[in-house]
Amino acid sequence: MLDESKPLYIAVAEQIEDGILDGTHPEDSPVPSTNELAVFLRINPATAGKGLNLLADAGVLVKRRGVGMFVAPGAIARLRQRRRDDFSDTYLVPLMREAAHLGIEPRELIEMMETLR
C-alpha cells in the first residue's frame, strides 16, 4: 500500500526501496516496469516512471536499454546508509521532543524500547 501522506512518485520509490531491503528485489534483478507498477498500484504511468527514475538517479536502479530497470549492484548498502543517515532527524528528534513534552526521561525511553523487543 502506498503512503498517501507523500507525493505518489516518492511513495512508489519507497515501496521499491522497501522491496530491495527486504529481499523481494535482489541486487541485479529486474523491478516491475512503469506500466506494471501503474496497473498494480492504479496510478498514472508517468507517476510510476517518475518514482523509478528517482531511484535510477540515486544509483539504486540501473536502466538496461531495451530490457528494463534492474537493482544496481551495491543498492542495498547504499539504501541502508542513506536511511541510517536520515534516521535521527526522521525518528529520534521527534521522539525526543515528544518525550520531553511528556516528561519522559531518556532512560525511560530505553526501558520502553527494550520491552518492545
UniProtKB/TrEMBL annotation:
Residues 6-74 form the HTH gntR-type domain. Keywords: DNA-binding, Transcription, Transcription regulation. The keyword Hydrolase does not apply. GO terms for molecular function: DNA binding; DNA-binding transcription factor activity. Pfam families: GntR (PF00392). Transmembrane segments: none annotated. InterPro entries: Tscrpt_reg_HTH_GntR, WH-like_DNA-bd_sf, WH_DNA-bd_sf. SMART domains: HTH_GNTR (SM00345). This is GntR family transcriptional regulator. The lineage of its organism: Bacteria, Bacillati, Actinomycetota, Actinomycetes, Micrococcales.
